[in-house]
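Following up on my earlier thread - several people asked me to post the actual chain instead of describing it. Fair enough. Here it is, all 303 residues.
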Amino acid sequence: MQKKPNRLSSALVVAGLVALLSGCGTSLNHAPVEDRTAVKPSKPAGASPSGGSASSSNADAKPLPGAENAGKPGYYTVKPGDTLIRVALENGQGWRDLVKWNGLDNPNVIEVGQVLRVVPPGVDAASVSARPINSAKVESRPLDGKAPAASAPAGGSSAASAAGGAAAASAAAAAARSDDDDISWAWPTNGPLIGSFDEARNNKGLDFSGKAGDPVLAAADGRVMYAGSGLRGYGHMVIIKHNAGYISAYAHNQALLVKEDQVVRKGQKIAEMGSSDADQVKLHFEIRRQTKLMDPAKLLPAR
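Reply from S.P.:
Thanks for posting it. Predicted structure:
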């Protein structure tokens, strides 16, 4: 004989299931609320979340280093894809100098939007159109000091002393500019030319063919400001800072024979030709005058 279902028991079971499902629903809603809170700092400036204030949201967003110098002559705002080595190359400076001038703790970490000083401290960047003037001389030779003393009369005011210092700096910059074209250039290899300078097609220098191991020569006297493979697309590369504001770059080598800060002479073997970061054995050669790309063929002597 079958027993009739107990209505009271069935009601209790249903009530228990409802309570259990209600409890689960509360637990699942908790995580999305935390996620929305976590992304609040990404809201545009001035926008405030529901129930919050704009000031509390803005307080979480810290300005990037150097932001107060954005747009000023002598400063560079980091773009996506930049590395410190690339910024240094494009501004005619050594990456170690940028580390020092900007007080960087880790040269491998720079942020998009960060503003970097790309001229030496004390240089009037506005007077040189934000282009570094002969920083190699400034780093390797102390300023003479005689010119500022002569320009400031004994017992003169601090304003007069400052004016004398500015005049001396301007004279030094003018002297550096006058020496810009005094470099004696030489071809960096004996290999045949296979690619000409074409800035419109993003070929920033000359390309030479050769055999793996062929000598790569310094195109002029100078000091090695970089030797390594930290710049994508260039492979093993040497960058030389010359004595009058020019730099030259030698890319795609298989071996580097010089070290950073080493003094080199025109015609000295600095690397061996290779195919690092390239589809064939070749030398890619660039010359920059301060921040401006130059056509090396217009500076090298006739072959």
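Confidence is low (pLDDT under 50) at residues 17-59, 129-178. That should answer part of your original question.
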